[in-house]
């Protein structure tokens, strides 16, 4: 099994690569310190599995996962992160990740997850799996706790939805009956909280989460 490790913390990345490299029949063929560096690396190496952090500069792990699968569709992505919120889990799955494991997992859990993802299975850490199963058992009834982007305020989520529908800041200000400056402030806050740097990335995140897809009323 050929693996690429993507994480912006060099000490953790190097330690993880060393652990993975000692597993039977597993080789770490490359490392990247953020999502932007990971995409061309994966395109060139075509590994079996990419171990992907989520919270990284320049290009976050969600967007990187999506782009990795565009250039290497047969590669499995295993998310390994400290983020355990429901929005992060479901965003990763919508982006195409096959696994979601929390940092702090021991060597055995990481190895099982790697082999599962490499063989085409889907795998979650125990705590994450329990919440995912609960969501499906209730048919998504726990909608409030799984609202997209819980880190956003209700107004910020509303602004993001309108951005995802293609409205300009001026059009959003008119629709919400607020000033253009207020909308710009909300948009800036949304970018900061979602760790994106431009409107296109924010729109991609929003649409992956199901925002902005309904027709304008």
TrEMBL record:
Residues 2-118 form the Response regulatory domain. Keywords: DNA-binding, Phosphoprotein, Transcription, Transcription regulation. Gene3D superfamilies: 3.40.50.2300. PROSITE patterns: HTH_LUXR_1, HTH_LUXR_2, RESPONSE_REGULATORY. InterPro entries: CheY-like_superfamily, NreC/VraR/RcsB-like_REC, Sig_transdc_resp-reg_C-effctor, Sig_transdc_resp-reg_receiver, Tscrpt_reg_LuxR_C, WalR-like. PANTHER family: TRANSCRIPTIONAL REGULATORY PROTEIN NARL-RELATED (PTHR43214:SF24), TWO-COMPONENT RESPONSE REGULATOR (PTHR43214). This is Response regulator transcription factor. It comes from Georgenia yuyongxinii.
